[in-house]
């Protein structure tokens, strides 16, 4: 039943997913976060709820526009549930804003497969990464994804080598000028302190360990058949799949070095893993297996956070 429902992309599917995202956010705010009943708190959480719902719209637009999955809602389902697995992602304002700007960048990166306005797309993708890095410094890592896309989509030329550098530093330079004019250059410097940690003790708690084991296991199960399929697919899809795998690797790097490990850093994996899972599940011929995976995913969410 669940598999059949999310195997379509009707408006009702998207409405259900929006409601799911709203409920997961609401449950997280009420039962997981420390609540400070005040007008500011209410307005702040309401703003970020709208931002998260908007991120779902952007994610849907990217996968539809670039044909990253078949015509279904499975990727959106996982995108919503992954937020439920790691609800502290909702409580880190800088991470949310950074990932919104990264979505804008990913939209441009994946659209490089076409020949339309290539230079503009390269500049914009790096520009958005520059802005994202101002909210979470390690986001700069995705500039490598821009160069990889340039290489994979055969856009390599001297001009395109320098465009990402310019695009990346334009917003950063504007921020520096602002702090320079206001005599706050030390604040600007603090933005670029790449703190890191290799302590994973927090992940040993069941609320982190169980979801992490599940997403890792499902990723391992998914990556081999989907990658094998990409090898015999059309050149466009093969190139796009290489970008997706590279994005997973870069996102894993950010998760590993993140200075604060409370599950919120996993947000960088939500985009690529949701697409990976969807491509695997949509090709499963045995209906019972497809249904079982989706139900088990929901059970893990309810089991870890609501029981």
Describe the structure.
It is built from 13 helices and no strands. It is mostly helical and 307 residues long. The chain has one domain. Helix 3 runs antiparallel to helix 4, helix 7 packs antiparallel against helix 11 and helix 8 crosses helix 9. It is globular and about 60 Å long. It starts with a helix and ends with a helix. The model has no long low-confidence stretch (mean pLDDT 90).
Q: What average pLDDT do the residues reach?
A: 90
Question: CA-to-CA gap between the ends?
Answer: 24 Å
Order of helices and strands: HHHHHHHHHHHHH
Q: What coarse outline follows from CA principal-axis ratios?
A: globular
Q: Can you summarize the main beta sheet?
A: none
What structural class do helix, strand and pairing data support? mainly alpha
Low-confidence stretches: none
Rounded to an integer in angstroms, the radius of gyration calculated over CA atoms is 20 Å
Number of strands: 0
Q: Approximately how much helix is present in the residues?
A: over 70%
What characteristics describe this protein?
mainly alpha
Topology:
Elements: H1 2-6, H2 11-31, H3 39-65, H4 74-85, H5 93-110, H6 118-135, H7 143-152, H8 158-181, H9 185-191, H10 206-231, H11 235-257, H12 267-281, H13 287-305
């Amino acid at each position: 039943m669940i598999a059949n429902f999310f195997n379509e992309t009707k408006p009702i599917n998207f409405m259900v997913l929006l409601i799911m995202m709203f409920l997961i956010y609401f449950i997280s705010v009420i039962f997981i976060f420390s609540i400070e009943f005040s007008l500011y708190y209410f307005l702040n959480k309401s703003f970020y709820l709208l931002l998260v719902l908007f991120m779902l719209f952007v994610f849907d637009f990217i996968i539809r526009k670039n044909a990253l999955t078949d015509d279904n809602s499975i990727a959106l389902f996982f995108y919503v549930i992954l937020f439920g697995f790691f609800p502290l992602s909702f409580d880190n304002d800088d991470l949310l804003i950074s990932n919104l700007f990264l979505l804008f960048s990913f939209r441009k990166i994946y659209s490089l497969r076409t020949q339309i306005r290539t230079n503009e797309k390269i500049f914009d993708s790096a520009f958005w990464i520059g802005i994202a890095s101002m909210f979470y410094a390690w986001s700069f890592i995705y500039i490598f994804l821009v160069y990889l896309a340039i290489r994979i989509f055969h856009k390599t030329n001297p001009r395109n080598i320098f465009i990402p550098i310019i695009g990346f530093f334009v917003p950063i330079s504007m921020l520096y000028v602002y702090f320079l004019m206001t005599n706050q250059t030390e604040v600007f410097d603090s933005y670029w302190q790449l703190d890191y940690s290799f302590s994973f003790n927090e992940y040993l708690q069941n609320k982190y360990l169980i979801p992490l084991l599940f997403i890792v296991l499902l990723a391992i199960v998914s990556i081999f058949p989907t990658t094998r399929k990409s090898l015999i697919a059309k050149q466009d899809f093969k190139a796009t799949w290489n970008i997706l795998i590279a994005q997973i690797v870069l996102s894993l790097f950010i998760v590993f070095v993140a200075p604060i490990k409370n599950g919120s850093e996993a947000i960088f994996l939500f985009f690529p893993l949701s697409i990976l899972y969807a491509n695997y599940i949509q090709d499963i011929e045995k209906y019972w297996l497809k249904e079982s995976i989706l139900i088990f995913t929901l059970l893990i969410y309810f089991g870890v956070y609501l029981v």
